[in-house]
Amino acid sequence: MNEHKAQLDLGDEPVELDVLEPTLGLPGIDTRTLRSTAHHVTFDPGFGNTAAARSTITYVDGAKSILLYRGYRIEDLARDCTFLEVAYLLLYGRLPNEAELSAWTADITNHALLNEEMRSFFDAFPRRAHPMAVLSSATNAISTFYDVYRRPTRPSEIDAGARTLIAKLPTVAAWAYKKSIGEPYVYPDNQYSYVENFLRMMFATPLEEFRADPAVVKALNVLLILHADHEMNCSTSTVRGVGSSRANMFTSVAAGMGALWGPLHGGANQSVIEMLQTIHDDPSATIQSTVDRAKDPNDDFRLMGFGHRVYTNLDPRAKVIREFASDVFAAMNTTDPLLEIAQELEQAARADDYFIERNLYPNIDFYSGIIFRALGFPTRMFTVLFAIGRLPGWIAHWMEMNTDPETRIMRPRQIYVGEAERPLPRIEDR
Ligand code: CMC
Questions:
Q1: pLDDT digit string (tens) for 109-149?
Q2: Distance from residue 350's CA to the centre of ligand 1 (Å)
Q3: Is 308 among the residues known to form the active site?
Q4: How far is the CA of 418 from the centre of ligand 1 (A)?
Q5: Cβ–ligand 1 contact at 177 (below 6 Å)
Q6: Distance of alpha carbon 129 from the chain centroid
């Protein structure tokens, strides 16, 4: 058999399918012609075995714990780069030089302000509104101020959309938080870096200026980099799927935020802390009973922050976070009983056959919430922080999808298992 072809035996003539070669990872069998030539479809719920696109952005080797953005190791980027530098890398495919980085940083800084009319948008939400609901609504709402309801076509328009979103999302996030605690909104200030500005808008009040500790700025910078992209995950696939209908970048990203919010995806970071807090507060919820519940097939409870579709080994992002957790606590001169519980829970799960057999390791969300807590963020903001981090990845994928000649509107097939055609009974006969 030709090494670039795959053969499928369906009983009659064998069907020959092209094999697409990757730079890294597994080759893909091209099934695009399968339905028209062999009258079969592929069946893959959750798309665990389906490549949705050829992409140049991010590579994950789940068995070897490797995560690369545009070919660079996540550990190296987290150690040496700023979040905006990594955002540029994801969007434009290469690291900026000094002049490009300073122009890009200035551009983002200069666009952090929201249109003043957006104030009434925040005012309209109830105080108890979850900040993820506010964030995704506001992301759509921002587009109404820039008349971007159509898909942009010129590169300059696309760049402007990317810049607008990356510049304004921290302001939106901080204002959603201020609204929820009944404090006045704090405006961005050009003298601060991206991360410092966000922290200040979150924690300054008219009574007291907020000076961010450099250790906190560094830690948040690293956390945002670690979250910045993860190839075809659920929210990114949502952004690509919505964008494939030629919907604009803002509404595609807002849809991605909805996907991220779910507890099996980015919402897990909030659920992890709630799980650890329950173990801390409730004497009947021990480490062992929590592990046992997660193993029970009759209980839909899962060990939050454990397991991953792609990693069959430790998530490299969790490794970076776990390693710097103690530095953060030392710099903040604080401790957290939940960190100890998390470590014990990890040990108990990793020693248990159920988790060993299924290759279930801690993922990024297992330790990120503990650091977010140490940095002073309330639990309900954790998934919002994930969203700020993931934004450059969503946009990079939207941009790639938008210019890829192989993009088609996302429209999967099905295997219909419902009723065959039947006559419609009259209402008195039903
Ligand atoms: N606790 C207990 N059992 C689990 C867990 C868990 N956290 N994760 C997977 N399993 C079991 C699952 O029950 C199944 O067992 P069996 O073979 O007996 O039916 C087996 O492991 C395979 O699981 P799966 O559900 O088929 O795996 P998946 O690839 O569809 O799901 C996942 C991946 C991340 C949704 C899942 O591991 C999970 O629900 N984890 C907890 C939520 C979480 O931490 N999510 C954050 C993911 S990482 C960051 C992000 O992407 O947002």
A1: 999 999 999 999 999 999 999 999 999 999 999 988 877 66
A2: 15
A3: yes
A4: 29
A5: no
A6: 21
- 317: enclosing H helix or E strand: helix 316-332
Residue 365 catalytic? yes
Beta carbons of 287 and 344 less than 8 angstroms apart: yes
Q: How many CA atoms, within 13 angstroms, populate the side-chain half-sphere of residue 341?
A: 21
Q: Is 272 exposed, middle or buried (0-12, 13-18, 19+ CB in 10 A)?
A: buried
pLDDT digits (tens, 9 = 90+) for 5-49: 999 998 878 899 999 999 999 999 999 999 998 999 999 999 999
For 280, other C-beta atoms within 10 Å of its C-beta total: 13
To 10 degrees, what angle do helices 249-261 and 382-403 make?
A: 140
Question: Which residue's CA is the nearest one to ligand 1's atom 28?
Answer: 309
395 lines ligand 1 (CB under 6 A): no
Whether the predicted model's global pTM rises above the 0.85 cut: yes
Ligand 1 atom 31 nearest Cα = 309
The two three-digit tokens of residue 188, written as one number: 């961005």
State which residues of the chain have pLDDT below 50. 1-2
